[in-house]
């Protein structure tokens, strides 16, 4: 097997991965960044709205901390929250070094853009260009599948070159996992299609614990027009217009959702209200109406609330006009947006495996049961820099102790032989991996989505097991697609098992059969980890870091 070597390996090319790569490179390390997609262009970071929650004039770190804890239902790890709020402003403003324009607004910062939808690209593209100038090597499209370890320490990864379907091992003195979340494991999502949770699966196979994977955030505003693909709807429109059910009732009034901006600070409550109305048969074509008729007063209210200038509001109104067309309303429903749970890390991104670091949405513990709007981008700049620094220092301490290419190749071949053994000797009909992917995503959305119950979650497990058996019984087709499906099945099972284990409702996790928050029995994290061939789910206390 071919082997590539580096000091620090970064897996993932969003803001978290790019910042870690730049930081490690500035410290003199040789850095290789591998990614499934083109760096700077196709990550969740690139698709983001460019908003950062942070200390600014009139908004203190303590206020930021309190809002973060309130949004997370106090299930946040205090040490991670403290690290975030104390370093937020400095980290966000440091993006100016890469040529990113940063402006202050309300309770944080934002990145301006000439066109709505380009805000994230105005961050990721300059960062990718900076990384190239510094000498960071990019390697893509590459799917990192398994961590290579020797004597309990991370020494690299093996995976597949996606175009060639050819295995490759990458040897590294330190590895940083920055693969993002798993929103695309669900049928309705605003995530890029490749965000299926590869990092969660890699970490699980490596033996690492993952916490709070039942907490999947659903953004409440994505179009749901019959016969059309869903499109992201700006959060401000929920404050400018009205969300109405089929009876014309205002959902915010009906469910007493009083905080605003509602699609930022009450994403969980609003998503739940919308899905409840549709489940009761009070939707409109399976959706909720976002009504902007008679909205001049609503626009003025929203402008004041969001702190936008007239020029920005004109751009938003123009964007809304194109989205709505000749109508004064659009049908909307929630879409899978963000995973609060993930790999257990400390404030420097260290995991339980020496030499392996993780940063960004692939990690868990910071956001608790629900993420505060704006904290996702703040998280990746604060912890991306810290993880890059920690990985650089670890790699520097490994000088003279790295494995040879032959040793790494032998480690990788063990995994490769295992995969080939699982595929050999099959005589069944060919398996459509495209259909299996869609079936997994559908069962997660329908049975482990916004509204959950023991019955629906167990149905999801039955579906997952059936799809696993379908793969095992037939010829699976392209190897790259197979590895992605194996990851998707594993991530889906971790989410469902975690959701079954937590017998209460809290934040983004809502159980129809346990609709109340239960602080007596469930003020704790769920934790999933591998034990041999078994998946264990257990609890651990808040504040364990």
Automatic annotation (TrEMBL):
* Active-site residue numbers: 267 (proton acceptor)
Citing just one GO molecular function, the answer is: L-aspartate oxidase activity
The EC designation for this entry is 1.4.3.16
Which residues does the UniProt record annotate as the domain Fumarate reductase/succinate dehydrogenase flavoprotein-like C-terminal? 438-535
Q: What range does the record give for the signal peptide? A: none
Please list the coiled coil stretches.
none
Family matches, as InterPro entries: FAD-dep_OxRdtase_2_FAD-bd, FAD/NAD-bd_sf, Fum_R/Succ_DH_flav-like_C_sf, Fum_Rdtase/Succ_DH_flav-like_C, SdhA/FrdA/AprA, Succ_DH/fumarate_Rdtase_cat_sf
Keywords of the record: Flavoprotein, Oxidoreductase
Q: Please state what class of enzyme this protein is.
A: oxidoreductase
Q: What is this protein called?
A: L-aspartate oxidase
Q: Give the organism, scientific name.
A: Desulfofundulus kuznetsovii (strain DSM 6115 / VKM B-1805 / 17) (Desulfotomaculum kuznetsovii)
